[in-house]
Amino acid sequence: MSDVANIRKQLRIKAGSAKRLYKEHRLYQKEEEDLKRKLDQYVADNAEEWDVKNTRRMLEESGKMITDSATRLGAVMQELRELVLAAEQEPELAQDEELMKAKETLEEVSV
To answer: What are the φ/ψ torsions at residue 104 (nearest 5 degrees)?
Structure first.
């Protein structure tokens, strides 16, 4: 496989990964907000201890997943930036559709 074809393929893969991880990261953040509201409501209503404890455990797990998804997203974004820079050095890819999409993804997903 030629170098240009390989770069084009990697641009598509990394851009897709970045979008997926960004979406996942946002979902975990939303889940954490929802769980905080739910926990506050349980505490205010003097709900059963099991409900409060379980919600706290789920909230803690969401926090861990936010950290994990942010780390993975950061790594993919760095790889994508480096790949875009490499692609810009190739004259054949100057106006390539995959390169343009990768640049759009970098702008959309900038964390």
So the answer is: -60, -40
